[in-house]
Description:
This protein is an all-alpha fold and about 140 residues long.
Amino acid sequence: MAPNSVERVDDQVKDVIQDLFQIQAAAHGYAGPQTEQELVRLITQLVGSLSTLSNDASTLSTRIPPEIIDYVDQGRNPDIYTREFVELVQKGNQYLKGKSEALSGFRDALADEMTKAWPEMQNDVEAVLQGRESEPPAKLNGTDS
Length: 145
């Protein structure tokens, strides 16, 4: 069974990292023309690995938000970005929950005051509170509506 695109790209990223490590080791232990030929071979291998990676990565359907790419380009940890994003969403949810609860309290207080002021509207107020439409009254204070 052939590995899927994500696994293949993951393996190619590992290959690129390995190529870079080998170049670093060869450059660190530079010993003249023989090492130079080895560096040329390793750099050629790296270019091939990067080319293959680029071709296969472009076929992936996975999309990474540009904000995360910018975050990583700045040398920061994407896990921190994710944690901060989740915390921001939770904060927004808490704010909206508070607004919703405040409006629910206002709705209930308004309904109580309306039924106290206009007892004949109690059925209509209850219908609104239950989320259904009430029948418009045929006459209000002796006049047609």
